[in-house]
Each structure stands twice: as C-alpha cells, then as structure tokens.
Amino acid sequence: MRDNQKIKIGFFGTPEFSLTFLKHIFEKKFNISFVVSQPAAKSGRGKKERKSAVQNWAEKKGIKTFTPETTKDHFFKKEILSKKIDFIVVVAYGNIISEDIIDLPKYYSINVHASLLPRWRGAAPVHRAIMSGDTETGVSIMKVEKKLDSGPVFTRSRIEIRENDSAEIIFKQIISKGNPLLIETLNKVIDGKYKL
Question: How far apart are the C-alpha atoms of 80 and 159, rounded to whole Å?
Fold first, then answer.
C-alpha cells in the first residue's frame, strides 16, 4: 500500500466544484501542502467580502492558504517557490498560473478540465457544450502548460448529454467520474505508468 501522506500537493481552485476535488484528495490522505484560491469577492447589499468555497474550507482545516490577485505577485511567488511539492492540482482556479510555478512540482502540474479536450478549452465548457447541442462531453485530466488548456491529456472519461440534462446534472457526473480519475492519474504518474 502506498503512503499517500508522503505525496505533497499544492491545490489551486476557487468555486464549490473545485472543493469537491480538494476534499477527495484530502480524504485519500494526500498531504495538502498549501491551497491557492481567488481573493474574497465583495457581494450582497453590504458588499461583504465572501471567501471562496475552497478558501473557506481549507482555512477551517488549518491548511496554509494563499489568495493573491495574481500568481506573479512577488511575495506570493517567493513563498510558493520555496515549497517542495510533488504535484500541483488545478481545478477551476480562474486565473493564469505563472510558468515558474507550473514547473515547480517534482512530477507535474495537473488540471481537471470539464470537457473532452481539445473541445471547449477555457471557461464555461459545460455550458458551451450544452448550448452547442453536443451529445457528449466529459472530463479530461491534463498536464498544465503555459497556454490555456493546451497541454497533453493523461486520462479522460466520456459523459453523454441527454436532451433534458442541465449544467448542474452534467457537473455532478463530471465530479463523480473526475474524482477517481484524478487519483488514478496521480498514482499512474508516481508509478511511471502513464502516457501523455
């Protein structure tokens, strides 16, 4: 049995969708070294600052959490680049990650993307698939590269889009297929049994 606790992961994500993946990695006993999320957004009548789902949960768990405006921020970079980690996992972070951070892990920076790449790169891939009348979509686990959603794919899983499926239904399927697929990918990379 592998000791997942020895595998250090930096996690980049922001919304509730990202959080489902972060929780799954946590439940599988991987060592979450730090979490990076978008800064708190002002919303509601009183323009109260609302922390992202990921930041909120990570802070409650006592995980070191960063919320830089940009990953090029000098102080943020200095702290992150001093970390020794095996992987960066990115799920709907919503910001460009600078190249030196992408290259930081021992293995790879890995992204969970809610489409069958190369179709629907970038934001809102599920909504775009439904609006375009696609009959299928899926989840791709890919290597992060400098250009947005352009990296090669490790693994992917297909999901049928039925006539009355909403984005919410598709997202639930992406979560249920994507979580085990992400863990499988991490393990394959560690074992050197993967193809890009």
Answer: 36
